[in-house]
Amino acid sequence: MKIFFPPDVKRKLDAIIQVCDIEVSLLGKVKKLPRRPDFVVTGLELFRQECSEVSTELDSEALGRFFSELLARGESLEDWRCWIHSHVDSQVFFSRIDERTINSFLGDWLISICVNRRGDSACRLDIFSPVHVTCHDVEVAVLLEPDAALLEQAKAEVADKVRKKPFPIFFDDDSVPLLPGYRRYWSWEEGLEEESDYEA
Ligand SMILES: [Zn+2]
């Protein structure tokens, strides 16, 4: 399982983290990718908050106001299931206060990401219902959409430069017939026994 950030969302996050000298919280809008166990953070919001140098506690009043704004915009609160917070220049991990914050979220599941200004991140997924389980060490990555022009260029370059070499098949048992063109086999006792036509 991975949590992907499209490049523009990641740049926005990095910019806020870089310019903020105290711990700060953001909420991310997430979407599960179809047919794979991965999520994409499609939006990011910095809401009004009070943070200290060493802690960010999500103030329920501030969150309430933020959620009201989202509702007024016609957003579904269900989608805002990613809590991101910064440890500024310290190591990334989930402190006891962070655990408390995570446990205070309403909803069935939550993705939490702790980041710092060195570019480190720690990510976990908490599923609260029917029992609380935590998936630790979830990978965070940037989602790069395939570039049509680059794909075409790559296709031409690979066709020009990359050749498939027949893969030699070896047998260590004489009773197994060899494929035409192969005259060698690998024996664990004897090592390489004969040469192949394909390796002149
Ligand atoms: Zn923290």
Write the layout of secondary structure elements.
Blueprint: E1 2-5, H1 7-19, E2 25-32, E3 39-45, H2 60-72, E4 82-86, H3 96-104, E5 109-115, E6 121-127, E7 133-135, E8 139-142, H4 148-161, E9 186-187, E10 191-192
The structure holds zinc ion (ZN).
Could you explain the architecture of this structure?
The chain has 200 residues and is α/β, with parallel strands linked by helices. It has 2 domains: 2-142, Cytidine Deaminase, domain 2; 164-192, no CATH class. Helix content is 24%, strand content 24%. The chain contains 4 helices and 10 strands. It has helices spanning 7-19, 60-72, 96-104, 148-161, and strands spanning 2-5, 25-32, 39-45, 82-86, 109-115, 121-127, 133-135, 139-142, 186-187, 191-192. The protein has an 8-stranded mixed β-sheet with strand order 7-6-5-4-2-3-1-8. Strands 9-10 form a two-stranded antiparallel ribbon. A hairpin with a 3-residue loop joins strand 9 (186-187) and strand 10 (191-192). The two termini are 45 Å apart. Residues 85, 87, 95, 98, 114 line the site of zinc ion (ZN).
Entry keywords:
two-stranded antiparallel ribbon; Cytidine Deaminase, domain 2; 4 helices; alpha/beta; about 200 residues; eight-stranded mixed beta sheet; about 25% strand; binds zinc ion
